[in-house]
Design goal:
The chain is of the alpha/beta class. About 35% of the residues lie in helices and about 20% in strands. The chain contains ten helices and ten strands. The chain has a seven-stranded mixed sheet, sandwiched between helices. Strands 8-9-10 form a three-stranded antiparallel sheet. The chain binds pantoate.
């Protein structure tokens, strides 16, 4: 990375902004020019799923900002914060190839001033699904996403359907706080064999990588039976759990069928539902999901929160 000039640096042609003040100034300059700013918040270790979000942003906005910030408050005390991959130069190459306008790359001290005690929490939703097995995780996510939104002030922000609970919680936060940012949820990007792309997939051994496909296989089986007429959530879950059992080494964390807006369990999927699964493949925790029948789908077009 070349040296910074008043908080602004460049790497492989991407403008890197390290402070909230500089980020806000750059974003306001974009809007003063009458342009719309699209935003893709990430924790780095970028893959094709992130790049799909960047392209969606490019297609719906005039300028694109990506953030890379490995947010410590969304990791539990026993989780992999220090192990989280940080291939910064490679990330910059990928962003440069997509001609991203700004990379917001703050450090922890910039995002969490000493003594900060304020949180943003979507109470009632943040304890569900991943929030149950990762207490405090979603409070960390909604707090940092709000703070990033305050710095970037985007017109539209893009998140992946792969993190379905996160997507639902952020949509709800945007609605409840009257945020002036439109939330767009983009479809999950998958490997040819069905495995959902995730920055954590690099932790899988070759054998674990093969086993991991069972998550999408279980979801596909549920889709198959739902398409054939099964509407009972308990029966669909029984079918999904049966497929997961084909890989006894994999430890199921949760397998649930919930309302895609509230994350509350549903008994019947006729009105639409989110089928969500999380499992430990070795020590790596993977998640995946499927939206059934008119439950809010990941959208190419706009999803107003
Ligand atoms: O999905 C992620 O990568 C993170 O949870 C997010 C939204 C960037 C917040 O840290």
């Amino acid at each position: 990375m070349t040296p910074c000039l008043r908080g602004r640096c460049y790497s492989r042609g991407v403008k890197i902004i390290r402070t909230i003040e500089q980020m806000r100034a750059a974003a306001r300059e974009v809007r003063r020019a009458g342009k719309r700013l699209g935003f893709v918040p990430t924790m780095g270790a970028l893959h094709a799923g992130h790049m799909a979000l960047v392209r969606a942003a490019r297609s719906q906005a005039d300028a694109v900002c990506v953030s890379i910030f490995v947010n410590p408050t969304q990791f539990g005390p026993k989780e992999d914060l220090s192990k989280y991959p940080r291939p910064f130069e490679k990330d910059c190459e990928l962003l440069a190839a997509e001609k991203v306008d700004f990379l917001f790359y703050p450090d922890v001290a910039e995002m969490y001033p000493a003594g900060a005690i304020t949180w943003v929490e979507v109470a009632g939703m943040s304890e569900r699904l991943d929030g149950k097995s990762r207490p405090g995780h979603f409070r960390g996510v909604t707090t940092i996403v709000s703070k990033l939104f305050h710095a970037v002030e985007p017109d539209v922000a893009f998140f992946g359907q792969k993190d379905a609970a996160q997507a639902a919680i952020i949509r709800r936060m945007a609605r409840d706080l009257d945020l002036d940012t439109r939330i767009v949820i983009c479809p999950t990007v998958r490997e040819p064999d069905g495995l959902a792309l995730s920055s954590r997939n690099i932790f899988l051994s070759p054998q674990e990588r093969k086993r991991a496909v069972v998550l999408s296989r279980a979801l596909n089986r549920i889709q198959f039976h739902a398409d054939k007429g099964e509407r009972r959530a308990a029966e669909l879950l029984r079918i999904g759990a049966g497929v997961m059992a084909e890989e006894p080494e994999i430890k199921l964390d949760y397998f649930e069928i919930v309302n895609n807006d509230t994350l509350e369990p549903v008994e019947d999927v006729s009105a639409g539902a989110l089928v969500a699964v999380a499992a430990f493949v070795g020590t790596t925790r993977l998640i995946d999901n499927l939206v059934l029948f008119g439950g809010r789908q990941a959208s190419g077009p706009e999803t107003k929160a």
